[in-house]
Amino acid sequence: MQYMLCTVYCAYIIQPSLKQLWRNLNRGKLDEKLLQHIWKDESDEMIIFFVSLMQTFGLMCEKKSKKTTIVRTTIMNTESGSSSPDDPQPSTCKKNVGRMFYVLSRLKPQRDDSTRVEYEEKRAVSLFHDFDGYLPDDLFQRVATKFIEEFQMEDVEPTLSYEHVELNVDGHHLVILNVATINNCRLFQTTIVRTTIMNTESGSSSSEDDDPQPSICKKALNFLEKELQVLSQNGARGVEVKMYIRCACSNSERTHMQVVRKFDQDVLPCRSKAMDVKRYRKLFNKIKDEQDKKKPSENTYNTSGSNAQSSLSKVQRTAGKMFYKYKVCICPCWLT
Fold first, then answer.
1. How far apart are CA 336 and CA 329, in angstroms?
2. What average pLDDT does range 201-207 have in this prediction?
3. What's the mean pLDDT in 44-55?
4. Helical packing angle, 44-56 and 304-319, nearest 10°
5. Phi, psi (degrees; rounded to nearest 5) at 129
6. Which DSSP category does 306 fall into?
7. Which of 18, 205, 254, 300 lies deepest, with the highest CB count within 10 Å?
8. pLDDT band at 253 (very low <50, low <70, confident <90, very high)
9. Which domains are delineated in the chain?
10. pTM of this prediction?
11. How many DSSP H helices and E strands does the chain contain?
12. Which long-range contacts (CB under 8 A, 24 or more apart) does 302-307 make?
């Protein structure tokens, strides 16, 4: 499904009015006008179905904005060509006009990292997730897309680049998602930064609290671990997800990573020494306990088939009866 937007096109067939929209797509931003042009031969119901499908699996997400207009589209009976009150699914669905979508799979590697934000280490905290020594293909883009969809602020655009995303989750916190190579392993890195509030009267920054708020840290980690667990095991990948923090003994020549399962200790052993992790415990403690209280069905991902079926059910609820016509065709792609 993601290849529907990875379209091969030639410059001479692009309409002049759409050139800028194609450029924006290569920057990870898809305008609905271009989407309708790409799928011009499809009906409104089909476009709504495909968009819902791609959003469900983290291939794209909609930008939150006040500038969209909501209209209703009637979904017709696929056999008789008319809507029926006896249909099990609703006969109408909402359609937002003038939308913008984020499509991270369109981004390409760039050498210039000058646009990346700089921050003070004391105002930030970083976690790393490992997948048995390698990072599954497209996992970063899909998890980052899901994270943007969940935490983005209205009309505040994230900074998007290849395997690096910066997102303001509120007025006090910036979350940076990126792929870090440490000890020859590619890790999913999450950095939560407490933003500096500038004092407009004196021109100095406020130092009320350097640490990120624990509520934001716990919410972000809870969401990330859930998505990482699901996406890493879907498609029969079946890899184990481990969480790490950088040990205090690390330097420019050597990086030592500490495995963390629960933030329930004050120190972690490091050979003849120990690392103080009270700060991590303050910011992330109890998140594991909250997850353990959930029912097994909500927190256990044993088979890729059950995860795919759950996602299919979500598409069914979102896209209505169009799901019934196409689910038989798309199931084998997800379960292999």
1. 13
2. 55
3. 89
4. 140
5. -120, 130
6. H
7. 18
8. confident
9. 2-105+310-335 (no CATH), 107-301 (3.30.310.200)
10. 0.75
11. 10, 14
12. 304/233, 304/234, 304/235, 304/236, 304/237, 304/238, 304/335, 305/335, 307/230, 307/233, 307/234
